Amino acid sequence: MKHLSVAGYCTNIDLNAPFVPAQLSDIDDSVLIRDVLNDLTSAWRQLGIKDPSTLSHQDQRRLLDAAITIAPPFSLNAHSKAALDTLLQRERASTTETHVGNLPPFLTLGNTKIVLWRGDITTLNADAIVNAANSQLLGCFLPQHKCIDNAIHNRAGVQLREDCDVLIKLQGHDEPTGIAKITRAYNLPSRYVIHTVGPIVQGAVTSDSKRLLSSSYSSILDTTQTVDNIRSLAFCSISTGVFGYPIEQATPLALKTVAQWVKANPDALDTVVFNVFSEHDYNVYQSALEEFICKN
Ligand code: AR6
């Protein structure tokens, strides 16, 4: 099966153009939400809502995320897209962002700082962040589902799903496991999102799952070198949520793959972040990193 390389899609999604969000500065949040919802009537009807105007402001905002989650690509007209960008940029401005450059390294490999950071990846300001996607590559279609795919798509805006749709159609088939695709990050603090489909594990971890997980990590790292100026990259813990890869087994493999790549590409990246979400996952990474330091 032939996979689409970055050269085969970068111009179709304007990968190298800076994203300039719309600023509808005179319009209140409630009007922005109403305008976008007006464009998503069939989505909120599918969710069982008869009249969003009867909902509280907070519930309308939640409904907007849910409707966008289930709406097919290219559902919004230009005004609604600008309204959503304005809303997401305002929300971004009132959220505390973490700058990768301010994070202390856990260790240094050659010229690359390795950082362990716990938090929501959508608040991290890195050159590129990693999304744990599914083989459709269009984001998660389950409203309010607590996966990273949903978090990233909801905070980036609908352009992310549109780009993924363009490149998956160009590719002509679903995204195989263990490779990577890059898009701009739109309304997120980061500049790029690198999407990968990790292996699904049911029962014991097979040698195929190990190979494919390692391949996701190395493909993502290779992808950073196809775009100018990616110096910092934040990985999420690929496959260890819905896809069931035990994090205790995924973590040493992730560290080993990244360390090998960094050794072979010593000047490629300034910072690699391992981003975790839960305290348990933080502890697993901390132990694995300490073990890695002892052994190397
Ligand atoms: N920031 C950082 N990490 C997060 C966040 C967040 N906002 N949310 C979740 N995580 P998962 P997978 C962590 O299930 O296992 C989707 O539905 C989470 O704690 O998101 O690769 C896709 O569409 C876990 O450690 O991804 C696919 O169908 C890690 O992110 C499927 O899930 C990955 O968990 C992919 O499953």
Summarize the structure in words:
The protein is α/β, with parallel strands linked by helices. It contains nine helices and nine strands. The strands form two sheets. The protein has a seven-stranded mixed beta sheet with strand order 2-3-9-8-5-7-6, sandwiched between helices. α1 packs antiparallel against α4 (78-93) and α8 crosses α9 (279-295). The model has no long low-confidence stretch (mean pLDDT 97). Ligand AR6 binds at residues 120-122, 132-134, 140, 145, 147-149, 151, 198, 236-243, 275, 277-278, 281. Ligand AR6 is lined by residues 120-122, 132-134, 140, 145, 147-149, 151, 198, 236-243, 275, 277-278, 281.
Task: Jot down its keywords.
9 strands, two-stranded parallel ribbon, alpha/beta, 296 residues, single chain, 9 helices
Blueprint of the fold:
Layout: H1 29-38, H2 41-46, H3 57-70, H4 78-93, E1 98-99, E2 107-109, E3 112-118, E4 124-125, E5 128-132, H5 148-156, H6 159-171, E6 180-184, E7 192-196, H7 207-224, E8 232-235, H8 247-264, E9 271-276, H9 279-295
Parallel strand pairs: 1-4, 3-9, 5-7, 5-8, 8-9
Antiparallel strand pairs: 2-3, 6-7
The structure holds ligand AR6.
The site of ligand AR6 has 25 residues, from helix 5.
